[in-house]
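Anyone else keep sequences and structure tokens together like this?

Example one:
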Amino acid sequence: MTDLAARVYNHTWKIDPIVRSVLDTDFYKLLMAQTIFRRHADDRVSFGIINRSTHIPLARLIDVGELREQLDHIRTLSLSRGESTWLRGNMFYGTRQMFAPEFIQWLEGFRFPAYSLERVGDQYELVFEGPWLETTMWEIPALAVIMELHSRAVLRGMGKFELQVLYARAMTRVWEKIRRLKQLPHLGIADFGARRRHGFLWQDWCVQAMIEGLGPSFLGTSNCLIAMRREVEAVGTNAHELPMVYAALAETPAAMLDAPYKVLSDWQEDYEGNLRIILPDTFGSAGFLASAPDWVAQWTGIRIDSGDPVAGGEQAIAWWQSRGQDPRKKLAIFSDGLDVEEIERLHAHFNGRIRTGFGWGTLLTNDFRGLGPDGRLDPFSIVCKVLSANGRSTVKLSDNPLKAVGPPSEIARYRRIFGHAEAMHAPVVV
């Protein structure tokens, strides 16, 4: 097993680049990229980093030269022969050849496009502009680089024994959480922690701990590279990015209202089974469910990613029942800022009423709260969101208004069009 403290103390750039493979990304990015490849290869979008935790002065903590060095390294990466073979031949969600040969051929030739980096006050403005198919691939690596450079900046100067104690305490914390989760009957849980992880090696350690500690209750990891290396399931479906872009590309308000369902129609043509999970909260879950075509209710399940998770689960149960579906046969995946206490609470509330799944993210792979010097290793909320599509601003409303993304005037316009009623303002920790 890797000696994490020694690697952190001794790490050199060549041994430990932050992102070491095109596959060091979330599985859903590849699934969405294939849909974009088939239908939107000519559309252009921009992505940008948004630090919601503005009290963290990233530009003062992270050296701009180190940041550029890591981003430039990512631009040299390409899919290896072994990685291509894994994508072509592996079974995902019980399906072989999920990725079409022509998409794999594109991915084999893919290189990360250029980026724009500027310092604005105490933050960095990091933007990726170009073909949607290329810029979408920056999201996870860009976040991983910023998060790990932040971790390295905080840890710099700590001694060997201090690091050993730090990681021993963090490992104990994770293991105690896993021991508690192991007591839950019929648990299904996956690692969703790539985007805001403490570091690649730490995420890999957390996955290995879950494999051993949870056995069949561990469903897999969203990180493709770790899934390949540890021979576990790569998990994920789709994200808010798709309806955000589809709505921005729409020419009329009616087409904007139809955009979330157009996304699902395209997705249904591409994928089946457990990949048919709806994500309703981009422009408000209540409106999405009320206007959804009946065929959407036949999908496998729903992902609840903002707002009150209990209220969201109850809303989904009532909706399925109103559409003649048996909620006990449906899957609800909870994925918003989860930690062990919340997982236990949601599991107890819904067990036996619906099938539950949990996407455990930042507070699995980056829970160093109170362990680092002066709390500076505590996780914080940073995202990489699509900002525009073909020159038009993109918008996310969310069930939690604090997670809204977009220019204020456009957010107001989208709320008028989608009839969005503001839900509970919940603190955004991660």
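And example two:
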Amino acid sequence: MAMIELSTLEGDARFGAWLAEPDGEPRGAIVVIQEIFGVNEGIRRKCAHWASLGYLALAPDLFWRIEAGVELDPDVPEQFEQALALMRKFDQDRGIADIEAAIREARRRMEEGRKVGCVGYCLGGRLAFMTATRTDVDATVGYYGVGLDDLLGEKHGIARPLLLHIAGADHFVPPEQQEAVHQGLDDHPRVTIHDYPGQDHGFAAEMGKRRSEDAASLADSRTEVFFAEHVG
């Protein structure tokens, strides 16, 4: 496991990404899309987990244009506020381009024909949805994505399997937004949605106060089955 450098799609700059490689040839790759807290220890642990299951895992540093190497702790109030400030400055469209660069890098590092999935959390859950609608990623998972109701106009772009985990008591995503997502996507043939009643935003974090062990284990087991079927 190590931080590597990727080239932007335009080839005009380079930025960091955390790479975790499995023992032996990868069965596929998973691009892990960060929360608003950067590529911190929690995201690196997720990469290590995917590598332990035989996948190449890559987590691009999406805040690099604002501040490279961000690693924040959501349980520290001052760092949580810093993360919110970074999110407000973040250009999501350029972030999708950087995720696409990571997808291409993952494919480059594997045998031809291997597939790439992506999984994102929080802001990354929103970006995962956008990745599903705007790129050729093979399969996508979003955990408690924010503002998905604003993106439903892009649902026609979902050409490959998409799995969404919705926290029923998400204080960032009120019930009316959750209902709009269901109304917009429940009948989509490539979308599966799982709800977690009573769970708050961040319930599947690897560490810290937000984690809810039972719900996290259930969601993660569903994600593993999903990627085993659609990535490898």
